[in-house]
Amino acid sequence: MSTAPSPAPRHTALDALHRSLGATMTDFAGWDMPLRYASERDEHNAVRTRAGLFDLSHMGEITVTGPRAADLLDYALVGNIGTIGPGRARYTMICREDGGILDDLIVYRLGASEYLVVANAGNAQTVLDALTGRAAGFDATVRDDRDAYALIAVQGPESPGILKSVTDADLDGLKYYAGLPGTVAGVPALIARTGYTGEDGFELFVAPEHAERLWQALTEAGAPAGLIPCGLSCRDTLRLEAGMPLYGHELTTALTPFDAGLGRVVKFEKEGDFVGREALLAAAGRAESAPPRKLVGLVAEGRRVPRAGFQVVAAGEVVGEVTSGAPSPTLGRPIAMAYVDAAHAAPGTQGVGVDIRGTHEPYEVVALPFYKRQK
Question: Which residues take part in binding substrate (predicted)?
């Protein structure tokens, strides 16, 4: 019995540039992406203290336009999209009819009746299919724009100064979770003040043919401030320290937003019905009365690193499961996010461990996030 060959990985517009920089490449959601350029720890610390440059062109962009674009998105997603002001963005989710999370998303309102939905790479097709299916009966168009954009992020405390040196856009007036069209290094871009690192920073949506020029300009502008290229590995440790969920780890179709401690993104008060409403109302009720498990932070007392899927234990019983774990460069100790039974979820709970290959390593339960930048 022969198996079909897996499709060749897709390449971003910056692929040749990453290789010229000596990047270690890895398959991520069907894309060949830079995992690291040199040291993951150095890249992580650069973003925390100076600035890092990321290629995020694997993310999935979907444009929704038309007179009833907002109504379609209000029906298809759990958030209140109709209340997003022009030039602003919102974190939200798309759920199944049973309340399970299909993906977490950022929605940008680009114009009166134009929205940009940014999905995770591995879920982009699922989100596109769901939005297309849910568009029936709405005067709105769902367009696959994954090939229309490259996405470059500059993140870290030095990022505003670096970006200011190559754009005349009003960055001081650009709030967190807002986006404005502008020109960066001579390239037209949507400049968004968003990120997945826990630091101040920007995500720049540009045409793929302009990606290399923009990357080189930011590299030169950022060199005096200590900016370096950064791969997906440090993006993962940065988001983990910042307590940000990763789809497939903290978020899955088996969980509702309420299970994930993110019930705040579900807006029951918005007008009209939305997909998953009944199931999510029930999930909200369950979460209030007796949450099955809560998402918590765990900090190691020793040096051994927990990984996704490892069991959380207390008094010889399994009381939870690790969803993400890694050494934390900022804390200097291994950390993890885990779903833990409510009885063991309070910060400071004693006697909790992680089963690491048969040994119960002691861990401290802490509130998320592990790291919060000083404003």
Answer: 203
